[in-house]
Specification:
By secondary structure, the chain is of the alpha/beta class. It folds into two domains: 118 residues, Rossmann fold (3-Layer(aba) Sandwich), CATH 3.40.50.1980; 124 residues, Rossmann fold, CATH 3.40.50. The chain has eleven helices and twelve strands. Helix 2 links the parallel strand 1 and strand 2.
Length: 290
């Protein structure tokens, strides 16, 4: 009886191994896509978000593993630091879309896409112009007529009227460690386009500072990027040590807190960011001496 039981368990184990082998093998023997079919593996939450707003979410068959905004039932295919090649083969994309980086995409990914006949698209997203240009490119890649992309890009351009008296404006990206957005980054460029004077005026797109160096920027207005945080949280909690050094912007209540979970994305979510800045700036009124 014990022998029969052991034999049964052995058979179950063999069946399990066969199933696992098949699942791996199926990735290599995946059926080809239909002619003209568009299947997108998107390795950037920002690019995926823009595809959503363009109405192309159903074309996304693979998402970046930290993308919290795409349907979580869509398989995660890793990120630029580590591609899940087995899952990528299983989802059979026709296009792989990624944010352009200095390091570039892995050589193995280029090799596999060449073998499979897939195409890779690396889109720059650092600047405001980059992000706006990506809207029309994505609409085209998804097989759209281009009308939706052009309309959305124009809506974004039209929202950037330089009519806000923000004065010198510091954009805080992190409280601990304290970091601000610098020249070349899309948040910095949006504030400038809206009529503000973003500070610092030189340096990298992301700059860490101590509290004293931050205070030396002497901003009239502070924008705090706090995605997903409580919008009613005390400013001291959101600004950390920087809130306790007697800055006029803090004392005068000229702190705009942006808690939209997508506010760090260089995507069409910028429309919501602009709307928030505009509404709060109008509530605060003109900055002193502006």
């Amino acid at each position: 009886m014990r022998f029969a039981h052991n034999l049964l368990e052995l058979c179950k184990f063999c069946v399990l191994l066969t199933g696992l082998a098949c699942s791996v093998g199926c990735a290599e023997r995946a059926e080809p896509t239909s002619e003209g079919e568009v299947r997108l593996a998107v390795l950037s939450p920002a690019l995926a978000d823009t595809l959503h707003r363009l109405g192309h979410a159903e074309l996304i068959v693979g998402r970046q593993q930290f993308d919290r905004f795409t349907d979580q039932d869509v398989p995660a295919v890793g990120d630029l630091s580590g591609i899940d090649y087995e899952t990528l083969l299983l989802v059979r994309p026709t296009h792989i879309i990624a944010q352009q980086t200095q390091a570039g995409l892995p050589k193995r990914l280029h090799s596999i896409t060449g073998e499979r006949g897939w195409t890779i698209h690396e889109l720059p997203l650092l600047t405001l112009d980059d992000s706006i240009a990506s809207i029309e490119v994505l609409d085209s890649l998804a097989g759209g007529s281009g009308e939706a992309g052009s309309k959305l890009a124009e809506q974004l351009r039209q929202s950037l009227k330089p009519d806000l008296a923000l004065g010198k404006t510091a954009i805080v990206a992190s409280a601990a460690p304290l970091a601000v957005i610098g020249p070349g980054a899309f948040h910095w460029e949006i504030v400038r386009a809206l009529g503000g004077e973003p500070v610092p005026v030189s340096g990298p797109a992301y700059l860490t500072l101590d509290a004293e160096s931050f205070a030396a920027l002497a901003p009239d207005t502070i924008v705090v990027l706090a995605p997903g945080e409580n919008p009613d949280a005390p400013v001291g909690e959101l600004l950390g040590a920087a809130s306790a050094i007697g800055m006029e912007a803090v004392a005068g209540g000229r702190v705009i807190v942006v808690t939209d979970p997508k506010c760090m994305l260089p995507s069409t979510a910028m429309l919501d960011f602009i709307e928030r800045i505009r509404a709060e700036a109008q509530r605060l009124g003109p900055a002193p001496d502006s």
